[in-house]
Amino acid sequence: MSTTDTPAFGTDEATEDLAQLLDAQLRFLRATRLQVTRQTGVVHGVAFPLVWAIGESCETLILLAQDRRLRDSYSIARCIIEGVVNVLYVYAEGTPVAERALRYWAQKSFRGINRQLQLLRDHLGCSSDLKLEVRKGSLLEDAIDEFTAKKGREMNSWSGYTLERRLQTAEGVFGSQLIRMIKLAIDAVFVDASEVVHSTYYGALLAMGRSGRAPIGQPASSELEEYQRKHVQMLLVVVAGCICTLMKAIGMCVDLHDGPDTAKELYLDWTKRYFEAPMWSDASFGADA
Prior knowledge:
Shape: globular
Number of domains: 1
Helix content: 55-70%
Distance between the termini: 24 Å
Radius of gyration: 22 Å
Number of helices: 10
């Protein structure tokens, strides 16, 4: 598509154009995922389901964007971006963090089964006292102890570090240029997404296009639709950029041939067609991109 044929940002045509871009990125991501499955070692084994989950959420985001579902698009976009950070963090830290993720999964699964049994007893009228027990001295017992706070409360952080700390660790391995795109995405999405996820008043008004003015009544239909289109398109833009970053980073650990570079070129071409001064350049995906 030439520049003169480029639909205006905020139109339904632009949404479809951007959805096709992200769908193309996902084809490269599936190929990336396949290459990861062919690797050996615990790091790749942990990375695979994380990459798979990112792809699933991207497909959901496309469907939401095409229907202008801005509110839920925020939460899905945040999920994708944090997923990208987690994959980079696992590859950056290697085996110790991958093994910690496995231990977190094991003890969380065990606790989940016992929660389901308690639900049956307490809320569904079942009289059974069935409860799974942990064998003393087992690896599972060690995992449960590792993720139990001193006062006996279950810990819900798989890494033990904040998102910012995980991103800093990834930056130390993959470089500040490659991480730039993720930082921009976090700044653009996370605060508003948190308001939406926690169902605050601000979050509700944000989805209505009323976050910056008096929330009197429902906005006009045409006004709301244009607002929703522009904002879901911006979410798609930053997510597509993060997918490029993800593939570039994995490509530094696994031979992906030319997939990351092709995905990057598709993305840069899109931004150049839509923005007079492109928000990102080759440098946004690493100095050697």
